[in-house]
Structure formats: structure tokens, C-alpha cells
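Summary: Need help interpreting a holo structure output

Steps to reproduce:
1. Submit the protein chain below together with the SMILES for magnesium ion.
2. Request a joint structure prediction with the ligand placed.
3. Inspect the C-alpha cell block that comes back.

Expected: a single structure record containing both the chain and the bound molecule.
Actual: see attached output.

Input attached:
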Amino acid sequence: MLIATNLSKEFILKEGNGLFRKKTIKNKQAVNDVSIKIEPGKIVGLLGINGAGKTTTIKMLAGLIEPTCGTIFIDDIDVIKENKKIKKFINLISGGERNIYWRLTAQENLEYFGALYGVEKKVLNERIKAVLETVALTESKDIPVERYSKGMKQRLQIARGLINNPQYIFLDEPTLGLDINIAKELRTYVKKLATVEKKGVLLTTHYIAEAEELCDYLYIIDKGYIIAQGTLSELKENLATKIQILITVDRLTESIKNEIDALFTNELIEILYDEEDNKKTIRMIAQKNYTCDIIKCLSSFDILVLEMKLEEPNLEEVLLKVLAGGV
Ligand SMILES: Nc1ncnc2c1ncn2[C@@H]1O[C@H](COP(=O)(O)OP(=O)(O)O)[C@@H](O)[C@H]1O
Ligand SMILES: [Mg+2]
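--- attached output ---
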């Protein structure tokens, strides 16, 4: 497990050269007190708008920049103090990266990056075979990358990120600037990294839908602070956003209404009855999904459920609320 605790990063900006312009020093607190956990086989998302502190956080986790304070451990290895040791365990892929050699083939690129990571020749050949297979590039491995489609180039980036067989893989905005179809394809490979390859994946994104589709657990970062975290359903539940259950029934009497009201007395649950055009509906608005309870209650009165609809808030609504300080 990767555990980062209370990470902060302050950048010191020097402006002017002190000769013609007065030298000024400004501090920029990019990340504040961020704690993150990543389990193998899970995709963790760091979601936030531009400038929120995502890249700074992911670079600290990857051991590329040193935090101003805080600790990062991968099992019992200290990422900050034993920086060289961790090269074996992690890899970082940034969206829109240009570090692949276009004149070389996929095979040659991977041989090069494998050597940079000090992967032993014999192991490397096997590894290249496996990662090419993972990203479905085996058949095109001997074609120069410049002849690849955009999607193939992105898949090669993933293969590059796998060349040292890392336990944890960090993806910084992996679908940034990609066409919808290519982004979609890439997401299936990202999913595979966790589910099939059992890597711990940390993904940063400012696309809410991407986080919603991929992540097992989410951290929402804003102005360098984690302002909310949880699984998608936890976030939706905890952030005081209401779920609506709409149930159409065959009959509804005053006494049944009273019984239902008596059962759900919690003040956070709102129940409305609607009897229009012979259509009898119960509308339940609550923070939790009480579908089971209400169905049980209705069936105890022998009431037939004709139709049921659940309207859950989407993550976008939840986040807009959080970012607007509404929670
Ligand atoms: N090397 C740096 N020097 C000074 N400020 C920086 C540096 N890198 C990032 N920042 C600032 O820190 C904040 C967070 O940046 P970043 O982590 O890149 O955000 P994100 O990846 O979420 O867009 C921004 O205000 C950015 O301008
Ligand atoms: Mg960034």
C-alpha cells in the first residue's frame, strides 16, 4: 500500500534579476496537507480544476519533487528518503507527453526505456513482449512510431509506463487533448492496469466523467486542499445531495399514507404523494437510497408497484455543490 500523509509543497518564486529589476521572492503554496492512500489493484482518482495542485501532488508521490513537509511510504520504503530505491516500484505517465522517439519502433523505444530503468536484458525481452501484448501493439511493434495512429501512440505511452513492472502507476491527465474515441479506448487500458495487472493506479483528471467511470476511490482537490474524498457512492451520499425515488402504485389510501409517513419519520426524508390522472405516485427524497425499505413497506400492505425510477445525482452536480462551498 502507498500511504502519503500530510503532504505540502511550497514553491518559492524569484522574480527579477536583482540588477535592473528589484528581486522579489514570492511563495506559492501549491499543495496543503494532502493525505492519500493507494491500494494495489485499485484506481484512485485525484480530481480538480486546472491549478488545483494535481501535478504537484503526483510528482511528489513519484519522487520527482520533494515535499516541503509530509511523508510518503510504499509499504515500508520511505519514498522521500530512499528515493533511488523506489524507481523499481513506480512509474509516471503524463498526458500529452512527447518523450517517445518517433523514428524508432515500439520495440526499440521500449528497449531504450527498459535500459534506462536498468532492467536486465533477459528480463527486458520478456517484459517487452508482455507489455506489448497488454496494450495490443504486438503486431505493430516493428513499425516506426511516426506511422502510428494517435491511439497507438498513447498505448505505447502506457507500455512505457509498465516497462519497469511498477507496483504503482501514476497517470497525470492521461486523456488530455485526446479525441473522444481515443480517450475511451485509453480508459479501457487504464482499467486493465488495475483489474488485470493488479497495479495500484493514481489518476489525475479534470474530467468528472472520467473519474466517475474509472475510479474506485476519489479525492477532490481544490486550491491545494483535499476538500472531499470517498467512493463515488459515498461522495454522493455524504455530500448532502438528495436521491429521488419515484414509485407508481396501484392504490394509495389515507391510512396507507399515514403508515408510510410513520415509518419514515427521519427529518431528512421527504415523502410526497401525487394522484393525478389516476396515476398514484410516491416520491421519496432522501440522502440515502431507501428503495428496499419502501418496497418492503408497500408489499406489507399488498400494494402493487407498477413502476419505479431512481434518480441519483451525478458527480458533476455533487462537485459543483462542493466547489461552490454549498456543503
Ligand atoms: N514549479 C512551480 N513553481 C511555482 N509554482 C508552481 C510550480 N508548479 C506549479 N505551480 C503552481 O502551483 C499550483 C498547482 O499547480 P499544479 O500542481 O500544476 O496544478 P494542476 O496539475 O492541478 O493543474 C498552480 O497555482 C501553479 O501555478
Ligand atoms: Mg496538471
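--- end attachment ---

Reviewer comment: The chain has two domains: 2-237, 240-323. DSSP finds ten helices and 14 strands in the chain.
Status: needs-info
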